[in-house]
Amino acid sequence: NAGVTQTPKFQVLKTGQSMTLQCAQDMNHEYMSWYRQDPGMGLRLIHYSVGAGITDQGEVPNGYNVSRSTTEDFPLRLLSAAPSQTSVYFCASRDGQGNQPQHFGDGTRLSIL
Amino acid sequence: AQSVAQPEDQVNVAEGNPLTVKCTYSVSGNPYLFWYVQYPNRGLQFLLKYITGDNLVKGSYGFEAEFNKSQTSFHLKKPSALVSDSALYFCAVSRSGGYQKVTFGTGTKLQVIP
Which residues in chain A are closer than 8 Å to B100, comparing Cβ atoms? Predict the structure, then answer.
């Protein structure tokens, strides 16, 4: 099994551009989430989903959009990129409710110039 | 609101010595607690969890953690550190029941010195 797959691995954008970070999991997990990792700040939750058609905001949702049309895919959209969104983005999934660990992808390293 | 504190940005330990990485948490109700490890340019990998039951939980690679409810702590330990244990370690908490969100600490860099 591939687990959680994130594409692209690296991306450079200009301020104001939009893009979509892809996340796919092949474990049939209901719960999926997006985090950003910044030095000294740990992982902060951007958006999450408890199943197809259901999404909700995390701690830092502004400037990001998500949708969940299938169980497998959970794309993250940057609407108008800003330098403050330069970060490493991780997608994660887990089976069932909160007593299960999350499985993480290897991240997308995003630079906004 | 729930939170996790990892008070040490970095922990240095000599190879073969015991190691401890500290974590304290705040959450309403019963906690679910997790430790993850991150190697350079990789995603987080699950080490161990406390859900209920025994306060001492054992996980991957010889790591263990002790849940202390009165001190709201969940420190990660290993009896004998290896150079290959050098990595970034994250503690995480969520509230029990349903699809609760997970809150991560800021991470502790463990450096094992040969």
Answer: 97-98
